[in-house]
Amino acid sequence: MSETALNMEPENDGAIEEQTVSDNSANSQEQRDVELYPTAENAQFTDFSQQPPAQSIQRNSMDLLLDVEMNLTVELGRTNLTLKEVLDLTTDSVIELQKQAGEPLDILVNNKLIARGEVVVIDENFGIKITEIVSPSNRMEKTQ
Questions:
Q1: What SS3 string covers the chain?
Q2: Strand partners, 72
């Protein structure tokens, strides 16, 4: 095999000299092949038969979500107003809601009904005492 190499050091006349290098040894070719093509190794696979039970995996997955913030809303009631009625609202206006007095308040997380409760006063603040947790099948009844 022949290779051409450039001698980048200028000779007396400033010309760059081209040199031909002959290398017929098989050993040198094998060395270059090893450098260009690394040897393959056996793949290592994880043994999934020794994995923890699914409940443990699920709990660890839930731990990742425990600090995610969610929007909690307590809904006293609702009503529909026309644009004119909204524009006519002033101080001391009273808006009638579609919920009876004494009826439990809806507690929503990210606009999904999850519970119902009643208003309580804690020191000088309002609070909500949960009186009912809504079943998953009933959660779909009250969505926005």
A1: CEEEEEECCCCCCCCCEEEEEECCCHHHHHHHHHHHCCCCCCCCCCCHHHCCCHHHHHHHHHHCCCCCCCCEEEECCCCCCCHHHHHCCCCCCCCCCCCCCCCCEEEEECCEEEEEEEEEEECCEEEEEEEEECCHHHHCCCEC
A2: 109
Say if CB 106 and CB 119 are below 8 A apart: no
Q: What are the pLDDT digits (tens) for 46-59?
A: 776 666 666 666 66
Residue-averaged pLDDT of the chain: 77
| CA 67 to mean position of chain CA atoms | 13
User: What size, in residues, is the chain?
Assistant: 144
Proportion of the chain above pLDDT 70, given as a percent: 60
- Tens of pLDDT, residue by residue over 102-121, are 899 999 999 899 999 999 99
Confidence band (pLDDT; 50, 70, 90) for 99?
A: confident
Task: Provide CB contacts within 8 A for 6, sequence distance 6+.
Answer: 16, 17, 18, 19
Residue 139, phi then psi, degrees to nearest 5: -65, -25
Tokens of 20: 């031909």
